[in-house]
Amino acid sequence: MELVIDKNDLQNLLKKAISATEKKSALPILSNFLLEAKDDKLTVQGTDLEVHVSVSVFAKIENEGTACVNAKKLTDISRLLPSNEVYIKLEDSTLKIKSGKTKYNLPVAPSEDFPQMYPFPEDNAFLISGDNLQKAIGKTAYASSKEESRYALQGVLFRSLNGNIDVVATDGHRLALYTIERTGKGDINIIVPQKALNELKKLLTGLEDVEVAATDQYAFFRTKEWILMTRLLEGVFPDYTQVIPSEFSREIKIDKKEFLESIKRVSAVIEGDTKPIKLTLKPEILELKSVSVEYGEAVDELSVDYEGEEYSIGFNAKYLIEAVEVIDGDEVVIKFTNPNAQTLIIPADQEDRYKAIVMPMEIS
């Protein structure tokens, strides 16, 4: 293996693959990168056996070949190289790196010991936009469960429905849904783990098209520059379509920024993650109130277009904030059913495909 590569290209390549590697593993090979020089490209692979990332960039290939080298050490070295042109050569059992007058000789592991990525399942693939995938992850992952006992809910569901892909997360107290348009006929109903979604966020620019496919155990996301393969989470994901109400007793439209600032002001008197806040609708007014035995109470009022009967409902302020923060537009629509049932939060823009459900909280 022998090649010449631009320093910035090398740095970006290693940066995208490094977090997929396993730093403290019973299998030492997982702390390495697999480098492959072939077809005018340098491809770098990293894996922890749960998530497997392969990233490629243009390089001037003198001799094709592979090398397996410590991922952290190579990444650290790439940041310190003095010259824009980097020369890399595998000689015997040593990876030689030269940049300007600086030279490194790094030991290598057997390339054949590095875990192989499975072939991309072409037969059931479909295409989505990277921008939509970025939005889907950013607008749903917050609602996934942090409890280890709720294994399936720790991930995010990707499910084919009505010609689109629904991306859904829930922890049982709230739910977030974003619908993606797709091209192609492949169907999926899979739960993708958080680590894979975090890696996808690092890889995505929002400008690319992404091919998506799945087998019984793995999901694949592929572009021209990279492939991500992830092991799927097992378990049963609840039927989210049953959770989203179709009928409502009342609704309001409210300025997103004003609403968020008001929630934060009022919940400031409450300590801890669970921040009970009471919303009361009155003619022309939305009242927000929090009470703390230790720190007193806070009340705020916002102007709203509402003419119905007085209506009160309690929430965890944190859940409201997280549901509203990811909305892109300036206005939010809140649709209420009854004080003991779920509330729907959506953007005022009807073209937006985001929905959030927040369950109420009993407040005395």
UniProtKB/TrEMBL annotation:
Pfam families: DNA_pol3_beta (PF00712), DNA_pol3_beta_2 (PF02767), DNA_pol3_beta_3 (PF02768). The gene is dnaN. This is Beta sliding clamp. It comes from the Bacteria. InterPro entries: DNA_clamp_sf, DNA_polIII_beta, DNA_polIII_beta_C, DNA_polIII_beta_cen, DNA_polIII_beta_N. Forms a ring-shaped head-to-tail homodimer around DNA. Keywords: Cytoplasm, DNA replication, DNA-binding, DNA-directed DNA polymerase, Nucleotidyltransferase, Transferase. SMART domains: POL3Bc. It is found in: Cytoplasm. GO terms for biological process: DNA strand elongation involved in DNA replication. Confers DNA tethering and processivity to DNA polymerases and other proteins. Acts as a clamp, forming a ring around DNA (a reaction catalyzed by the clamp-loading complex) which diffuses in an ATP-independent manner freely and bidirectionally along dsDNA. Initially characterized for its ability to contact the catalytic subunit of DNA polymerase III (Pol III), a complex, multichain enzyme responsible for most of the replicative synthesis in bacteria; Pol III exhibits 3'-5' exonuclease proofreading activity. Belongs to the beta sliding clamp family. The keyword Iron does not apply. Residues 242-361 form the DNA polymerase III beta sliding clamp C-terminal domain. NCBIfam families: dnan. Residues 1-117 form the DNA polymerase III beta sliding clamp N-terminal domain. The keyword Disulfide bond does not apply. One of its GO terms (molecular function) is DNA-directed DNA polymerase activity. It comes from Persephonella marina (strain DSM 14350 / EX-H1). Residues 128-239 form the DNA polymerase III beta sliding clamp central domain. One of its GO terms (cellular component) is DNA polymerase III complex.
